[in-house]
Amino acid sequence: MEQNNTINPPLNSFFEQYKDTKNQGIKQPESNLSFDDLENEFSNIEEQFNSKNNVTGVLKVQSANQWIKEAKERPIPMMLFDVFWYQGEICILFADSNIGKSLLAVQIGNSISKGEAIKGFKLEAEAQPVIYLDFELSDKQFENRYSINYKDHYIFSEQFQRAEIDSDLDLTDDAAFEECLFESLTQIIEKEKAKVIIIDNLTYLKNETEKAKNASPLMKRLKALKTKYNLSILVLAHTPKRDRYKPISNNDVQGSKMLMNFCDSCFAIGASAKDTSLRYFKQIKVRNSEHLYNTDNVVITQIEKISNFLGFKFLSYGCEMEHLKQLTQTEKGKLDQDIIDLKNNMPSLSNRKIATQLGTNHTRVKRVLERNQKDNGT
Fold first, then answer.
1. How many angstroms separate the CA atoms of 118 and 299, rounded?
2. What is the pairing mode between strands 130-134 and 90-95?
3. How far apart are alpha carbons 74 and 85 in whole angstroms?
4. Helical (H) or strand (E) element with 235
5. Higher pLDDT, 236 or 30
6. Could you identify which of 113, 171, 173, 215 might form a hypothetical disulfide with 255, taking C-beta atoms 3.0 to 4.6 angstroms apart as the criterion?
7. Which residues pair with 232 in a beta bridge?
């Protein structure tokens, strides 16, 4: 039977209904298509049209089946750094100062740019451009880490791009600088076609990120960038002075509440109290995988320089409790007395501030003070 290439009345009516959709930013069908092709094209337009009509204010509402149908069209997230960081995620990596955050960040970026997994960790994504924003080291410090006494330098992939702040700029206006920084980052993303961004570190993007009112807008801007350019973003953050006797938790990162709300995943590097040369990796927040590396199962590593590359070496797995500080009975007694003395000398000091000053937790402070009051009959 000869194919009918004319548009029948029902389809013509359908076309009339959606002929103005180009004004709504919906792609129009090509001309000179068969009836079946046109029908498919109009079906796609109908889906786009309905999708736009499902948006009310800041909310998009549609059936669970439709969400799944749309999600099926998007690729399955691939591992960028084992289960710690997946494609399409804003991931936060935090640790104390001088623990090795920057070392690991460069090692991860180098791995992704070359498409070569770090030994002991999985990499599923193909080699791709990486932008590493380095607000910590000078170029000479960076050179030293990836050379042998400033000679025999490590050769990075050309897809690994490092950026630092132009030292000639006037950075006195924080608000103007933040706008300029995000604008520059946007331009670099578009120029390099990069999908992987590493920011070292968060506090440079916004001062006082521990305050919720500052952390929230910052994370919203990063999330908007991620959505617009389909990015994977790794953000390094500091942890304030923490209790080394307790397991690492989401409360240990600056601006913890807001940062945790907006990030997709989070992991931390802990220093071992058992051996100062050891470090351990622990998942804090997980979305795309099971919570594999928790308190009972952390990744044990060691920092070492192999030839001209300073980075982490995978060793084994272990329990976090084995690497935390352990108080002796004498130390416990001294700490308890220090808590009581500090409270007596400064009655207005809160339990949390006492805990911070003495390197413990506020729960212990509360327990010690309540027991002391009970013993003294006050």
1. 13
2. unpaired
3. 18
4. strand 232-238
5. 236
6. 215
7. 196
What integer pLDDT is reported at residue 137 of this predicted model? Answer: 92
DSSP single-letter state for residue 307: T
**Token pair for residue 91?**
């991931």
Q: What pLDDT sits at residue 3? A: 45
Name the pTM for this structure. Answer: 0.74
Strand partners, 354: none
- Pairwise CA distance, residues 138 & 153, whole Å: 16
Check: CB of residue 108 under 8 Å from CB of residue 97. no
The C-alpha torsion from 333 through 336 and 338 to 343, rounded to 10°, is -160
DSSP tag of 148: B
Indicate the DSSP class of residue 352: H
Residues 24 and 49 sit within 8 Å (Cβ to Cβ): yes
Nearest to 306, CA basis, from 158, 159, 145: 145
How high is the pLDDT of residue 2?
A: 44
Read off the tokens for 272. 């071992």
